[in-house]
Amino acid sequence: MSHRHRNHNCSCQDERRQRWVEPSILYTLWSGPKHGYEIMSTLPELGFVRGSADPGAVYRTLRTMEENNLVRSEWDTSGAGPAKRVYALSEEGRAHLICWLDALKERRDALDAFIRRIERLQPQAVERDT
Q1: Angle at 68 (CA atoms; ends 81, 55), nearest 5 degrees
Q2: Calpha distance 49→20 (Å, rounded)
Q3: What contacts 36, CB < 8 A, 6 or more positions away?
Q4: Residue 72 DSSP class
């Protein structure tokens, strides 16, 4: 997602990707329970996290999601080594991901319309090397 700019102060890369942590976690847990490290390792694959996920942000989000009954957790002491907290998606969490889907579709439609407007203003913007 990198591109060149004449203006080095361009803010278009200054996205607040943290807003995508919650729906990404919900999506990741849809397939089954996972511990925090598993969740963090899958987030970059979804394209909203550059590099590795911020553990603090992920665990803060998981705590908030648990307080809001979107996920539940329990300690797994079955393996060797220290106990691991395992997170699972609740029914409320499943419904919440579907709400995210609707919101994302609306945002996508608005972004598509906005992109078309910009393209009509300056066709050479489309042709520049992105």
Answers
A1: 40
A2: 8
A3: 55, 58, 59, 62, 84, 85, 87
A4: E
Amino acid (one-letter) located at 43: L
Q: Quote the number of domains for the chain.
A: 1
**Helix and strand counts by DSSP (H, E) for the chain:** 5, 3
> Nearest 5 degrees, angle CA 61-CA 62-CA 63?
90
E strand or H helix at 71, and its extent?
Answer: strand 71-76
Task: Determine the Cα–Cα distance for residues 41 and 82; give it in Å rounded to an integer.
Answer: 19
Query: Which residue range forms the structural domain that includes residue 97?
Result: 17-127
Which residues are within 8 A (CB) of 50 and not within 5 positions of it... i.e. 6 or more apart? Answer: 1, 17, 44
Inside any domain, residue 62: yes
Residue/partner pairs of 100-109 with CB below 8 Å, 24 or more apart: 100/22, 100/23, 100/26, 104/23
Residue 17, pLDDT score = 54
**Mean pLDDT split into 10-residue runs, the chain, 130 residues:** 47 57 95 95 85 88 96 92 94 96 93 92 62
| Global pTM value | 0.76
Could you tell me the CATH number of the domain that includes residue 58? Answer: 1.10.10.10
